[in-house]
Amino acid sequence: MKSFKSALIILTIFLAFSCQNTAQNNTKQADVQNADPIEVPIKEGKARAYFASGCFWCVEAIYESVKGVDEVINGYAGGHSKNPTYEASNTGRTGHAEAIEVIYNPNVIDFATLVDVYFGSQNVTQVNGQGPDRGSQYRSIIFYQNLKQKETIDAKKLALGKTLNKKIAAEVYPFQKFWIAEDYHQNYERLHPNNRYIQGVSIPRLRKFQRKFPYLIKDSH
Length: 221
Known about the structure:
Elements: H1 2-33, E1 47-53, H2 56-64, E2 69-77, H3 86-89, E3 97-104, H4 111-120, E4 129-130, E5 133-134, E6 140-144, H5 147-164, E7 171-174, E8 179-180, H6 188-191, H7 196-212
Parallel strand pairs: 6-7
Antiparallel strand pairs: 1-3, 1-6, 2-3, 2-8, 4-5
Helix pairs in contact: 2-7, 4-5
């Protein structure tokens, strides 16, 4: 009986501590969602945009195939913790999602078209994930840096929802900070073309997007 009572006390303390941490994390996450957006200035003629849409290996490959996009960097965004890592973000407790930074030429492609690429390259109704990747770290988020971008995102999301007559899963966050992922995550599809995940998930997703938007794809020659 004494052993049972001790176990019950430990369980009660654990649950209270867990609930307290959850409440604190929810408060921190609300602060992230309600913060004022930070605008990244155009540098040397290049602008930056930020998206989360499942595994960043997949999304990196999609945006790097688009005309006007110079580079894509994999990382983490949308959470409340500092210096997130792949292992930490995978717990779902940091609030961060796997995200990408798109470095692009605004004279070739505009933000609105990048949003079209975003919605056109995913299952827009899947909550907390894309395909086989499940969890809040794989959720869909579009980050805006100013009111004009937010209006563009909201209008396209609303129109898409009406067209499909379904709820669009993508969250809309003010951009705060982008944390660059570990080196081994960068250019992953290009460097690991024979990886089973790349072969079975990333490449089919990329090809599906390219068939849908052939006019946006870079010339391969």
